[in-house]
Amino acid sequence: MSERIQVIICAIIIAVIAIWLPFYQAETSSLLDQYDYYAQVIWQEPWRFFTAHIFHLDTTHAVTNAIALVIVTVFFAHHYTVRTWFNAVIVIMVICTTVVWLLGTPERFVGLSALIHGLLLTSLLLEWSQQNYARTDWLSPLVIGLLVLKVLLEMMGAMHSAILLSAGSDYGYIHLAGLAGGIIAWRLHRKRLASLTA
Question: Listed GO cellular component terms (predicted)?
Answer without folding.
Answer: membrane
